[in-house]
Amino acid sequence: MTQPQPALVSSVPARRKPASSRTAALPAISKLSELEEHLATRFSPPEWKDRFFLTPGELCDVAENYPDQLTVGWKVEDGRLSAEKDVIVSLGWSASSDLVPIVVVGLYVFPNPREAQSVWVDKGVYGKSLPVERVLGIRGRCAVNFQSGSYCYSPGEMASIRADELWPRIWEYCQSASVPIEQ
User: What whole-number distance in Å separates Cα of residue 28 and Cα of residue 144?
Assistant: First the structure.
């Protein structure tokens, strides 16, 4: 596993806590599968039950709610689909590094607003049944929300960060990539 990264020192505004009513009362968990089940149940739109979607603030709420139980991984890489860049966050179980972490991808930056919307429907990622603007948090040329899926990353491929460092990382990335984000 990579060494923890130093905390960011620039001025990062405080975010709203909880980020939404969905994260206002997160349940107690005793294993990673309980968290994954909760996220799949509470954060999946009725139109799309195979994935769950979280705003950046909701993802931070989840990580910060379980700081002693979860490990948090961070990675920015060249984008999937037509995105220029995207961010990968993993939530692993601190008591066992053998478990496959929950991995979400978001903060997609596309070349233009049309591509940000069309890639999800026109290229067959979700089809026309999912309200992509709402669920993916499309703002201009960006899809800011995080989504689960079949992403495979080992903890060693990602920077290990503390739960309270996730929001500063998201904020700094959004500022550098001109991603519009709510606090």
Answer: 27
